[in-house]
Design a protein that fits this description.
Helices cover 71% and strands 0% of the residues. It has helices spanning 3-23, 28-50, 65-85, 87-101, 107-128. The chain contains 5 helices and no strands. With 143 residues, the chain is mostly helical. It has 2 domains: 1-60; 62-143, no CATH class. Helix 3 runs antiparallel to helix 4 (87-101).
Length: 143
C-alpha cells in the first residue's frame, strides 16, 4: 500500500470521527443515523485495511483527480450557500454544473434533468414528507 492510500484511509477515518463528534450535539433520536453512517464508514475502512485487494485485483484509479477535487469543491460551495440562496435556486445550478463536470455535453439534456430532478426532490421532500427545504432568496414566496 502506497502513501496515497494510507493518506486516503486516514482522511476517511478522520471524517468519520469529525461527524461522530458533531453528532454529539444532536438529540439522541437525530444522532442515530449520522452515527450509523460513521460506524459503517469505519467498518468498511477497517475491512480495506485488514483485507486489502490482492495485487492486480480491484479497479485501477483513473487520472480524474481534478474532476474529483472539482466535484468536492462544488459540493462544499453548494452546502455553504444552500441556506443563503435556497434549495430551489441553487440545486439546478449545482446539478447542471456537476453533470457538465462529468462529461454530459448536451445542454438541453443538462437543463431538463437539473430542473426536473429539482422539482421531483421538492415535491418528494416538501410535499410528501413535509421536510422543510432552505428557501433562501425565495423566503416568503411559499417555498
Amino acid at each position: 500500500m502506497g502513501d496515497k492510500s494510507t493518506f486516503i484511509r486516514a482522511f476517511v477515518f478522520g471524517v468519520a470521527a469529525v461527524f461522530w463528534a458533531a453528532s454529539r450535539a444532536l438529540p439522541p433520536d437525530s444522532a442515530f443515523y449520522p452515527r450509523l453512517v460513521c460506524v459503517l464508514i469505519v467498518l468498511l475502512g477497517a475491512l480495506d485495511v485488514f483485507a486489502p485487494p490482492k495485487r492486480g485485483e480491484g479497479e485501477q484509479v483513473s487520472g480524474n483527480t481534478w474532476l474529483v477535487i472539482g466535484l468536492i469543491a462544488l459540493t462544499a460551495l453548494y452546502v455553504l450557500f444552500l441556506t443563503h440562496v435556497g434549495f430551489a435556486l441553487l440545486t439546478p445550478f449545482y446539478l447542471g454544473v456537476s453533470m457538465r463536470f462529468m462529461g454530459v455535453r448536451n445542454l438541453k439534456q443538462v437543463i431538463a434533468i437539473a430542473i426536473g430532478l429539482t422539482i421531483a426532490l421538492i415535491v418528494t421532500f416538501s410535499g410528501l414528507f413535509g421536510v422543510p427545504l432552505p428557501a433562501g432568496l425565495l423566503n416568503g414566496l411559499g417555498f
